[in-house]
From TrEMBL:
<dbReference type="Pfam" id="PF07687">
    <property type="entry name" value="M20_dimer"/>
</dbReference>
<dbReference type="InterPro" id="IPR002933">
    <property type="entry name" value="Peptidase_M20"/>
</dbReference>
<keyword id="KW-0378">Hydrolase</keyword>
<dbReference type="GO" id="GO:0009014">
    <property type="term" value="F:succinyl-diaminopimelate desuccinylase activity"/>
</dbReference>
<feature type="domain" description="Peptidase M20 dimerisation">
    <location>
        <begin position="170"/>
        <end position="267"/>
    </location>
</feature>
<protein>
    <recommendedName>
        <fullName>Succinyl-diaminopimelate desuccinylase</fullName>
        <ecNumber>3.5.1.18</ecNumber>
    </recommendedName>
</protein>
<keyword id="KW-0479">Metal-binding</keyword>
<dbReference type="Pfam" id="PF01546">
    <property type="entry name" value="Peptidase_M20"/>
</dbReference>
<dbReference type="InterPro" id="IPR050072">
    <property type="entry name" value="Peptidase_M20A"/>
</dbReference>
<dbReference type="InterPro" id="IPR010174">
    <property type="entry name" value="Succinyl-DAP_deSuclase_DapE"/>
</dbReference>
<dbReference type="InterPro" id="IPR011650">
    <property type="entry name" value="Peptidase_M20_dimer"/>
</dbReference>
<dbReference type="InterPro" id="IPR036264">
    <property type="entry name" value="Bact_exopeptidase_dim_dom"/>
</dbReference>
């Protein structure tokens, strides 16, 4: 394949977004796009470029006092009759336009066109963000080459519709169970119905008052929801087990241990097991590059509600923010698109921030 990422395309974040969208890269199929990105970066004299799996890292080594990371994932969710891209007026449609090849285009455009950024910059183009964490390129790099992630500040170019979204909420899944005693439903008084017992659990969820927490001016709105329920043995048996899977999204002032303690308090008296959790990340607005970035954007940040890879950086002590042109509500949507004017505005903001003073 001829590399579609030509110098003309790399010079224009809009053309570059489109070219990246038109290289299919559903999770676990990122080799072709990673090859194209790596080939481009290896030719850039002011970058040193490395690859691990289908994750490409390129960085400047200018001896600046601070280092920032710009990161974007190369993969997309499965196609949904939205490949290749199409244009309708100011809108570019296609899988990955919003989440997040428009963000990847920022990083690649800056990597190639900005030889003298005001900070040293590490650019990450990573694989497998949309699937299980064990495949995630940043996770794999953190295991193999943690020093690649060293920085004073990280910017994840995930879709935020041009607003700075700070930190992220944590997430925990737990299974809460009610138990009973099996019996023939024709003589049900010999048994105890575990599904009926679940009513009390569901009422606790229904009346649960979720917290709204403000940290450094950013509001994080929590949520606790039943996301699955299972129970029942047969059409003529009083069931002895009912399990409710609960997903708790918690503000970053709580650790996963705090979140678990809170779940145990809400469901006191019931069996509960945590099946999965990920810590949140505090807003991360205090690092000097973060402050300068917020000044370049010129608008106040808001709290990030979904979990993102900013938490991976936060866990390594690197404050991180989310900023990208796509509308997060359109991510994973068959009508996924991005506004051309938003791409241009965000590119100008990043250039203002990173260009030499
Ligand atoms: Zn994404």
């Amino acid at each position: 394949m001829e590399n579609p990422l030509t110098p003309e395309v790399l010079a224009d974040p809009v053309a570059l977004t489109r070219a990246l969208v038109d290289i299919e890269s559903v999770s676990r199929n990122e080799k072709a796009i990673a090859d194209c990105v790596e080939e481009v970066l290896r030719k850039v004299p002011h970058l040193s470029t490395h690859r691990h799996g289908n994750t490409v890292m390129a960085r400047t080594e200018l001896g600046r006092g601070q280092r920032v990371v710009l990161a974007g994932h190369l993969d997309t969710v499965p196609l949904n009759n939205n490949f290749p891209s199409t244009m309708r007026g100011d809108l570019m449609y296609g899988c990955g336009t919003s989440d997040m090849k428009s963000g990847v285009a920022y990083a690649l455009h800056l990597a190639v066109t900005l030889p003298d950024p005001r900070y040293d910059v590490t650019y990450f183009f990573y694989e497998a963000e949309e699937i299980e964490s064990k495949y995630n390129g940043l996770f794999l790099v953190a295991e193999a080459y943690p020093q690649w992630l060293t920085a004073d500040f990280a910017l994840l170019l995930e879709p935020t519709y041009g607003i700075v979204e700070a930190g992220c909420q944590g997430t925990m899944r737990a299974v809460v169970a009610t138990t009973g005693v099996r019996a023939h439903s024709a003589r049900s008084w010999h048994g105890v119905n575990a599904i009926h017992g679940a009513g009390e659990l569901l009422r606790r969820l229904e009346t649960y008052q979720a917290r709204r927490v403000v940290i450094d001016g950013c509001e994080y709105r929590e949520g606790m929801n039943a996301v699955r329920i299972a129970g029942g043995v047969a059409g003529n048996v009083v069931p002895d087990l009912c399990e409710i899977e609960v997903n708790y999204r918690f503000a970053p002032d709580r650790t996963p241990a705090d979140a678990e303690a809170h779940l145990r308090e809400v469901f006191a008296g019931y069996e509960l097991r945590v099946t999965d959790s990920a810590a949140g990340a505090a807003p991360g607005l205090d690092a000097a590059p973060a402050k300068e970035f917020l000044a370049a954007v010129g608008a106040a940040p808001i709290g990030k509600l979904g979990w993102t890879d900013v938490a991976r950086f936060a866990a390594m002590g690197v404050p991180a923010l989310n900023f990208g042109p796509g509308d997060p509500n359109l991510a994973h949507h068959p009508d996924e698109h991005v506004e051309i004017s938003k791409i241009r505005d965000g590119a100008a903001t990043l250039h203002r921030w990173l260009a030499p003073a």
